[in-house]
Design a protein that fits this description.
The longest helix has 19 residues, at about 230-245. The protein has a 4-stranded antiparallel β-sheet. The chain has a 3-stranded antiparallel β-sheet with strand order 4-6-9, with helices on one face. A two-stranded antiparallel sheet has the order 7-8. The protein has helices at about 5-15, 20-30, 35-45, 80-85, 90-105, 110-115, 120-135, 180-195, 210-225, 230-245, 260-270; strands at about 60-70, 70-80, 135-145, 150-155, 165, 165-175, 255, 255-260, 275-285. Helix 1 (about 5-15) crosses helix 2 (about 20-30) and helix 9 runs antiparallel to helix 10 (about 230-245). The protein contains 11 helices and 9 strands. Strand 7 and strand 8 (about 255-260) form a beta hairpin. The chain is an alpha+beta fold. Among the domains are: about 1-50, Ubiquitin-associated (UBA) domain (Helicase, Ruva Protein, domain 3); about 60-200 and about 275-285, Elongation factor Ts, dimerisation domain (Tetrahydropterin Synthase, Chain A, 2-Layer Sandwich). Helices cover about 45% and strands about 20% of the residues.
Length: about 290
Amino acid sequence: MSSDNLLKKVKQLREITGVGFKDCKNAIDETKGDIEKSIEFLRKKGIAKATKRMGRTAAEGLVCISEKDNKFSMIEINSETDFVAKNDEFINFAEEVSNLALTCSGKMEEILKSKMGNKKNVDESLIDLVSKIGEKITIRRSGFIGTKNHLNFSYTHSSIKKNIGKIGVLLSIETKKEKKDVINIGKQLAMQIASLSPLAIDKEDLDANVIKKEKEIITEELKNSGKDIKIAEKIAIGKLNKFIGENTLLNQEWIMEPKKKVKDVINDFAGKDKFVIKDFLRFKVGEGL
């Protein structure tokens, strides 16, 4: 690896983890320049703090939601700069594509082939917009929630217009209650998801590989701490339970009243009625890029 490339890698790792130059250089050397493995290396050494997602948002753009008759679609469209994301042409393009996404039930292949107001399909219009603005623009992902038997909700955070912002959430709830009686808690749950970014609804919904990886990292971190094995095992269990609690919606602290868990708030609200969170989607601009 050239010295320039090494310095770039070290700088990138420092920005992501907040760890010093020497430790970052050592991690880069050990992993032959692999950033993800370097992050894992630093965590196992106990140098970098554990977070749900150790990464920085690298892309700009918008998340757009469209809705009609209890059906909701959500798309993320990325640009290279925030300046372009605030451009009227970019916003208008994003809005129109968002409406088409609802018609296509969020199916990306169908969205890209759909005709826009200019008589061109989305794919062709995207190329034209890139040529005009002079910046890379991509339609990154799309989602859809529209089960008739459920009550569905949406929420956008850091909105620049209605249903257009930097974070979007779709939420589906199964209940026999009327929507007018559920609107308030539905919105609050969507805000909870936007704010605390759960990975799953409950413990059993968490990806087994995510739990396995977290367990490995915690174990390695404690091995390097020099603590007694029995004490380390107890600490590991506590850390893993904390990770699960922070990353599953029902087990998170309720943002409106942190002394309560989300599941407690739902139980209090539901009473004897059925009230089950069936699904949610959360998009944050540039997350994971």
